[in-house]
Write a structure and sequence with these properties.
154 residues; alpha+beta; seven-stranded antiparallel β-sheet; 2 helices
């Protein structure tokens, strides 16, 4: 599973990238295990201690990955994420994506971006969560739901 974007806020780019890589490996390892109710390759649907997880790993032509994940928590809250994870190269690449939380109070959307600054002459990159407007949250959620619906669990 990929971590909540709130854990990425103000973090240096390396730790969230490593977390995303670990989440990607974990999802790939879970694919096809006895608890996985999704028969499609690179698609996972299973119950976890946090709730129901539905995830799809998309492999892109540039060797990057996109992870689309929906976590339906036991509390009823639904958190849907889309995380684009570029291929590692010369340094740690910037990830992008969005996370939409649905609860009784409505939608709350965050977009993941990178802020660049300088500290004592050294460039520093850190993640920032930007609030999405209501219509942006709805559009992002529909985009993620369309991908997840393309890989139904059995």
């Amino acid at each position: 599973m990929i971590a909540s974007f709130t854990s990425f806020h103000h973090a240096n780019v390396s730790a969230p990238y490593e977390q995303a890589q670990m989440g990607l490996r974990t999802l790939k390892q879970l694919d096809g295990t006895p608890g996985d109710k999704n028969l499609s390759p690179n698609a996972i649907s299973m119950a976890t201690s946090q709730g129901q997880v539905d995830a799809v790993i998309l492999s892109n032509g540039d060797e990057s990955s996109s992870i689309v994940q929906r976590l339906t928590k036991k509390s009823g809250e639904v958190v849907t994420s889309w995380l684009d994870v570029p291929k590692a190269g010369n340094g740690i690449p910037n990830m992008t994506g969005f996370e939409i939380s649905q609860s009784l109070i409505g939608l709350h959307g965050l977009a993941l971006s990178v802020k660049e600054s300088w500290t004592m002459g050294t460039p520093v990159r850190s993640y920032e969560n930007q609030l999405l407007a209501s219509n942006e949250s709805q559009n992002a959620l529909m985009r993620a739901e369309a991908v997840l619906a393309s890989f139904p669990a059995h």
